[in-house]
What we know:
The chain is of the alpha/beta class and 308 residues long. The protein has a domain of 213 residues. The protein is built from eight helices and eight strands, in the order βααβαββαββαβαβαα. The longest helix is centred in the C-terminal third of the chain and has 87 residues.
Amino acid sequence: MKRERVLISFDYALRRLLRNKANYEILEGFLSELLSKNVSVKNIGEGESSKENPNDKHNKVDILVEDESGEILLIELQFRHEIDFLHRMLFGTSKTISERMVQGNEYMQVKKAYSINIVYFDLGQGDDYVYHGTTHFMGLHKNDELRLSSAQREIFGKETAADVYPEYYFLKVNRFDDVAKDTLDEWIYFLKHNVIKDDFKAKGMSKAYEVLKRDNLPPEEQKAYDCMMYQRSDDLSAIASAKLEGRIEGREEGRIEGRIERKKLAEELEKKRREREEREKKIEREREEHEKERAYFLAEITRLKNGV
């Protein structure tokens, strides 16, 4: 029988445990599975949005990772829906790149960046749960892709133009169907349920299986973690309630608007009916007047013929 272990949430682990160098293996495993390449973490810093609103700490967390090659990985985890989240991804990545560029350096010193976004709401429209965005330059006339020259490939250490530009990943965790078809899915299963099954083989899973236990936290931190999870439940409940109330109010408003529209339509139809009746009466009066005039002229013609 397969076992599974319920662990602390990934966002709490990002805040408190994964920044410890002894636990880099866990984050390296997740990033390696997502990017399909071996990632070795050099250091971890604070992301920008964590500084923006300290009162929002239950709903989002982000960290800035630098790997051994100097590339930047901006990881953001977000629970609360934001309609402009795509713009935020773009801003956060651009700001991070520009701030890490030393003034006066050559532009070739700009580091490759990955924006990795784990969201617990439906972002945009799409049926998948993992999306990956890159930048490609395509010819408008020849439909060919712009390639790096051999000198650029040697100097930059990149193979394609897309390798120079930021890449965007976002994981719509709630869209995952809970069927782990590959090792990346095993990580997404954990992100969704805080659970690792004992047959999961993804990189970093075995370390996470042992480290991310609630009982490993000091007593005071266990209380803090429980408080955060209770707060999150309250937040999610409040959001769900607001949506439900909004739908109910929307239906009621729709019914009221429907009655108003039906009344307006009935009044408009009645107005058109009365106008039609008036036109018909006018036509009938004009016809009667015409008949009277015709009868009069016929009578006059007959009188004149008879010499009366």
